Amino acid sequence: MVTLKPGPINVGGLRLNNHLLLAAGILGTTGASLARILASGAGGVVTKSIGPEPKAGHHGPCVVTVDGGVLNAMGLPNPSSGFTRELEAIRGQPVVVSIFGGNPEEFATVAGWFAGNAAGFELNVSCPHAAGYGAALGSDPAIVEACTRAVSRLGLPTWVKLTPNVTDIAECGRAAQRGGATAIVAINTLKAMRISTALRRPVLGNTFGGLSGPAVFPVAVRSVYDLYEACSIPIVGCGGITTADNVVEMMMAGASAVEIGSAVMDDIGIFATIAGDLYAPDGEDPAGIVGCAHA
Amino acid sequence: MREQMPIGVTITRITEESPSIRTFTFDQEIPFNPGQFVMVWVPGVDEIPMALSATDAITVQKVGDATAALFSLGVGDQIGIRGPFGNGFAVTGRTLAVGGGIGVSPLHPLATAGLVDVFLLGARSAEDLIFADRLAETTTLFTATDDGSAGHHGFVTDLLGRIDPIDFDHICVCGPEVMMRAVLGILERHGCTDRGQFSLHRYMKCGIGICGSCCTDPGGLRVCRDGPVFTGDRLIASEFGHYTRDASGQRKNL
Ligand SMILES: Cc1cc2nc3c(=O)[nH]c(=O)nc-3n(C[C@H](O)[C@H](O)[C@H](O)COP(=O)(O)OP(=O)(O)OC[C@H]3O[C@@H](n4cnc5c(N)ncnc54)[C@H](O)[C@@H]3O)c2cc1C
Ligand SMILES: Cc1cc2nc3c(=O)[nH]c(=O)nc-3n(C[C@H](O)[C@H](O)[C@H](O)COP(=O)(O)O)c2cc1C
Ligand code: FES
């Protein structure tokens, strides 16, 4: 297997301890939980998406596991500005604050609360199951550009996380780049649903939700590959990563770093596990791997 | 990632334990360790965590929307169950159980399995002392009520003044968090916090350790996955007894 030279890296304006970040919304609601993941070997963490007002999220069931994946419709529960105090415990660490809003102004407002203690922002314009938020905005390139611009103006690293639930993800990537994004994150979950045959109704309280986990890995690789062709800013790969080889594959498609979410459920020590396999003192220079699958 | 969709179970019996507490027995057995919980799906309403009070039953206190919806169900109605989840109690040797109110529910299967020697049961008044008759069959039971209508007049923690916790290898506790914190304080004075096993209540959405809604300070422990049962020494310098979080993740003082 390909191994990489260990050491801190710079991606999209952020300095990370390694190539592996915690994805948004996974154990990201409290500072202590983020600190636990950082201590367990993650090179950086992304918080739960924070919005303009406190939100309780959708009614349950919010999550079910399916073969090779997780189906969730959390509904973006978050404590809003109250989250600032959670960050006190992890000040100075590579913490990306994920934010969402219903329009560019709301994005700017929320980002403003965290400008003092975030290493950077990740804009969630891609959650597939929150009416008026996320993918509702992220499938329109003009809105993606406007939301990105509203936050990138603050001068902090601004990552934009895209939805695969569009015909052409590259178009949204170019829009984020025009808006001043310093990196693109791909992908958020795929719109999906399951029905309980026993109860004869959709399982999720919200009827449909987003699919993540190994089942979406090929979709994520394809999205990163497309974006690498279309954009000139770094790409952060996300979706279905469970092994060091998945990380290498994502990097060959064009990712400069990766985010890992669902795999944390099976192994909360996944970051150390993957890092143990991925890095070796005589490993290759990552710069030679990123995008190498593009002829 | 293995598939675990909710299974559908049919309610076969509803037992009124007290004016606000009912046991719902269903048509399937779920192998579990006492102290483990399931996510109970009340179709069209919500999904909430509930301890298994027996292999085929949950015992529910009516407190809000989802529990009220459960109370409106009858024999023959269906609910969904995911689980069992969490760690459960781990006991060997002499065991003391301390239960307050509905907190008796996860301790009940421990006692019926013959794993509890002495049981301290507390409630507001006599009619809320649920499972007392059955607990008396398998354990040495002492009761306490706030209004003095049965047993000791006062808190269940007062009974710990008469029983030496040091005589037990394990002290399993479930009830209101202030009551559990008081028990932890007593164990601390006896220098045996590590013998305490406390079953915690935190807001749960996924039940499987992925969403983060049940995480506690300062260790980031997930109540749904690393717990719900924690030994006292892991709780002593934590948020336990001080604050909790609501559905949005905002802190609420206890
Ligand atoms: C591991 C565990 C085991 C439990 N076992 C039992 C049991 O055996 N019997 C029993 O009666 N109750 C049990 N509970 C408590 C039970 O989950 C709540 O009473 C129930 O969720 C209330 O739902 P509601 O919609 O009726 O109330 P709401 O009006 O929504 O809320 C009332 C209170 O219930 C709690 N609550 C609501 N939703 C949740 C949720 N998703 N997760 C956690 N707490 C919630 C909150 O503290 C809230 O303040 C257990 C909780 C946990 C975490
Ligand atoms: C329970 C859960 C909650 C999530 N919450 C968020 C969120 O708040 N914001 C966001 O941008 N993505 C959220 N996601 C999507 C993940 O960050 C990630 O994009 C997706 O799960 C794919 O990665 P994975 O296959 O490694 O999990 C969530 C995913 C899950 C499973
Ligand atoms: S309920 Fe989701 S992590 Fe515990």
TrEMBL record, chain A:
<dbReference type="GO" id="GO:0004152">
    <property type="term" value="F:dihydroorotate dehydrogenase activity"/>
</dbReference>
<dbReference type="InterPro" id="IPR024920">
    <property type="entry name" value="Dihydroorotate_DH_1"/>
</dbReference>
<dbReference type="InterPro" id="IPR001295">
    <property type="entry name" value="Dihydroorotate_DH_CS"/>
</dbReference>
<feature type="binding site">
    <location>
        <begin position="261"/>
        <end position="262"/>
    </location>
    <ligand>
        <name>FMN</name>
    </ligand>
</feature>
<dbReference type="GO" id="GO:0044205">
    <property type="term" value="P:'de novo' UMP biosynthetic process"/>
</dbReference>
<feature type="binding site">
    <location>
        <position position="124"/>
    </location>
    <ligand>
        <name>substrate</name>
    </ligand>
</feature>
<keyword id="KW-0285">Flavoprotein</keyword>
<dbReference type="GO" id="GO:0006207">
    <property type="term" value="P:'de novo' pyrimidine nucleobase biosynthetic process"/>
</dbReference>
<keyword id="KW-0665">Pyrimidine biosynthesis</keyword>
<feature type="binding site">
    <location>
        <position position="48"/>
    </location>
    <ligand>
        <name>substrate</name>
    </ligand>
</feature>
<keyword id="KW-0963">Cytoplasm</keyword>
<feature type="binding site">
    <location>
        <begin position="48"/>
        <end position="49"/>
    </location>
    <ligand>
        <name>FMN</name>
    </ligand>
</feature>
<feature type="active site" description="Nucleophile">
    <location>
        <position position="127"/>
    </location>
</feature>
<keyword id="KW-0288">FMN</keyword>
<feature type="domain" description="Dihydroorotate dehydrogenase catalytic">
    <location>
        <begin position="10"/>
        <end position="278"/>
    </location>
</feature>
<protein>
    <recommendedName>
        <fullName>Dihydroorotate dehydrogenase</fullName>
        <ecNumber>1.3.-.-</ecNumber>
    </recommendedName>
</protein>
<feature type="binding site">
    <location>
        <begin position="239"/>
        <end position="240"/>
    </location>
    <ligand>
        <name>FMN</name>
    </ligand>
</feature>
<comment type="function">
    <text>Catalyzes the conversion of dihydroorotate to orotate.</text>
</comment>
<feature type="binding site">
    <location>
        <position position="124"/>
    </location>
    <ligand>
        <name>FMN</name>
    </ligand>
</feature>
<dbReference type="GO" id="GO:0005737">
    <property type="term" value="C:cytoplasm"/>
</dbReference>
<dbReference type="Pfam" id="PF01180">
    <property type="entry name" value="DHO_dh"/>
</dbReference>
<feature type="binding site">
    <location>
        <begin position="72"/>
        <end position="76"/>
    </location>
    <ligand>
        <name>substrate</name>
    </ligand>
</feature>
TrEMBL record, chain B:
<dbReference type="InterPro" id="IPR001433">
    <property type="entry name" value="OxRdtase_FAD/NAD-bd"/>
</dbReference>
<keyword id="KW-0479">Metal-binding</keyword>
<comment type="function">
    <text>Responsible for channeling the electrons from the oxidation of dihydroorotate from the FMN redox center in the PyrD type B subunit to the ultimate electron acceptor NAD(+).</text>
</comment>
<feature type="domain" description="FAD-binding FR-type">
    <location>
        <begin position="4"/>
        <end position="91"/>
    </location>
</feature>
<dbReference type="GO" id="GO:0050660">
    <property type="term" value="F:flavin adenine dinucleotide binding"/>
</dbReference>
<dbReference type="Pfam" id="PF00175">
    <property type="entry name" value="NAD_binding_1"/>
</dbReference>
<dbReference type="InterPro" id="IPR017927">
    <property type="entry name" value="FAD-bd_FR_type"/>
</dbReference>
<keyword id="KW-0249">Electron transport</keyword>
<protein>
    <recommendedName>
        <fullName>Probable dihydroorotate dehydrogenase B (NAD(+)), electron transfer subunit</fullName>
    </recommendedName>
</protein>
<keyword id="KW-0001">2Fe-2S</keyword>
<keyword id="KW-0274">FAD</keyword>
<feature type="binding site">
    <location>
        <position position="206"/>
    </location>
    <ligand>
        <name>[2Fe-2S] cluster</name>
    </ligand>
</feature>
<comment type="pathway">
    <text>Pyrimidine metabolism; UMP biosynthesis via de novo pathway; orotate from (S)-dihydroorotate (NAD(+) route): step 1/1.</text>
</comment>
<dbReference type="GO" id="GO:0009055">
    <property type="term" value="F:electron transfer activity"/>
</dbReference>
<dbReference type="InterPro" id="IPR012165">
    <property type="entry name" value="Cyt_c3_hydrogenase_gsu"/>
</dbReference>
<dbReference type="GO" id="GO:0044205">
    <property type="term" value="P:'de novo' UMP biosynthetic process"/>
</dbReference>
<feature type="binding site">
    <location>
        <position position="224"/>
    </location>
    <ligand>
        <name>[2Fe-2S] cluster</name>
    </ligand>
</feature>
<dbReference type="GO" id="GO:0046872">
    <property type="term" value="F:metal ion binding"/>
</dbReference>
<dbReference type="InterPro" id="IPR050353">
    <property type="entry name" value="PyrK_electron_transfer"/>
</dbReference>
<feature type="binding site">
    <location>
        <position position="214"/>
    </location>
    <ligand>
        <name>[2Fe-2S] cluster</name>
    </ligand>
</feature>
<keyword id="KW-0813">Transport</keyword>
<dbReference type="GO" id="GO:0051537">
    <property type="term" value="F:2 iron, 2 sulfur cluster binding"/>
</dbReference>
